[in-house]
Design brief:
By secondary structure, this protein is α+β, with helices and mostly antiparallel strands. The chain contains 9 helices and 8 strands. The strands form 3 sheets. It has a 3-stranded antiparallel sheet, with no helix packed on it. A 3-stranded antiparallel sheet has the order 5-6-7, with no helix packed on it. Strands 1-2 form a two-stranded antiparallel sheet. About 5% of the residues have low confidence.
Length: about 350
């Protein structure tokens, strides 16, 4: 815990220094600090892995970032190049007879001059190529997958040979696996059917939890916000929806479309409600995870922005202290949201596979 606090405080100081430099530069050009733009930058996806920004002695704004692969499909042709060719949106990339421009972390097709057409709401109307790029969120996802594989493969090797007292990673992973099995899966799914669904429940629990922890980094430069991306939470919810309904038995479907023990006129009414419930359950999973993770990041970044909105060093200790408290709360939320998503997934699956007499 002490190491976590040290990392938080170091990262916060680094962020303060970065935005202080950016604020000094913006003052020279009579630009006001925009907290909405800063927050949106931190929680949104991008085509490079931003590390730090600063203003050099020549009063030039310098961005240091790690470029990521850009993969675009246009007119049946795949185009591969690194995001550094966009020069943070300042350059037009030509591939064949196509011109690509990066604008607000989205890639558009333009002419040779990079001209964009905007609608009444100031949104670009240019066509999008089909984007298969390795973005910051995708890179974070692969990082979490590698970390999960390392943890579980390393722990699994300890079980080969003679039984022994859990040590190292094994002593950390084993209680968590038993927690998911005993307190989540067994409490919702029949013990004779649990082995079929336990691998999924374990995977989704650790995937969400680890990505939630990695996702705390977007509060500072260089992070990602994978579990705050609605596309990711939607896919996880759809997987739960698919597993639930594919494995649903006759009793499950009977209770949805022709609930026993209920007057016939009421059955028809309940059937409509239960059918809608098939889709609202995973929808709730999707929104709950995305909203809770994103909201925590926005609150911390908003507290941090007070320093620059009020333009006062006096507010800095208050903002940092409140930000630290929210960060500790976010550590709890990271585990809690993984638990809730897994528990509700187990609940929905358990309702679908339980025997009719139960």
């Amino acid at each position: 815990m002490r190491q976590i606090l040290q990392v938080f405080l170091f990262s916060l100081v680094l962020s303060v220094c970065q935005y202080t430099l950016a604020e000094d530069s913006s003052n020279k050009h009579e630009k006001e600090f925009d907290p909405l733009e800063m927050i949106s930058h931190h929680i949104s996806d991008s085509h490079d892995w931003h590390i730090i920004s600063y203003t050099n002695k020549a009063d030039e704004h310098v961005n240091i970032s790690m470029p990521l692969p850009v993969i675009l499909l246009h007119n049946g042709k795949l185009h591969f190049f690194m995001s550094s060719e966009f020069e943070h949106g300042n350059a037009i990339v030509q591939k064949g007879d196509a011109y690509f421009k990066l604008y607000h972390n989205k890639i558009y097709l333009t002419n040779a001059n990079g001209d964009l057409e905007f609608d009444a709401e100031n949104h670009p109307k240019n066509e999008h190529p089909f984007d298969l790029s390795i973005t910051r969120n995708v890179g974070s996802m692969w990082l979490s997958v590698i970390l999960i594989l390392f943890l579980f493969i390393s722990a699994a090797k300890k079980y080969k040979g003679e039984p022994q007292t859990p040590k190292g990673l094994q002593s950390i992973i084993e209680p968590l696996v038993l927690f998911v099995r005993d307190d989540i899966a067994l409490s919702q799914i029949d013990k004779h059917k649990i082995d079929k669904f336990l691998p999924y429940l374990l995977t989704v629990f650790f995937f969400i939890w680890i990505n939630n922890l990695i996702g705390l980094i977007p509060i500072f430069p260089g992070g990602s916000n994978l579990t705050g991306n609605i596309s990711v939470t939607m896919l996880l919810a759809l997987i739960t929806l698919f597993i639930t309904n594919v494995n649903g038995n006759k009793g499950y479907w009977k209770h949805i479309f022709w609930m026993p023990g209920i007057p016939v006129p009421i059955r028809a009414f309940l059937a409509i409600i239960e059918f809608i419930g098939i889709f609202t359950k995973p929808f709730a999973l999707m929104i709950r995870l995305m909203a809770n993770i994103t909201a925590g990041h926005i609150i911390i970044l908003s507290l941090f922005s007070l320093i620059f909105v009020l333009k006062s060093v006096v507010i800095a200790p208050v903002s940092i202290l409140m930000g630290l408290m929210m960060f500790m709360l976010e550590l709890l939320v990271a585990a809690l949201q993984a638990y809730i998503f897994t528990l509700l997934s187990a609940l929905f699956i358990g309702m679908a596979v339980q025997e009719d007499e139960h």
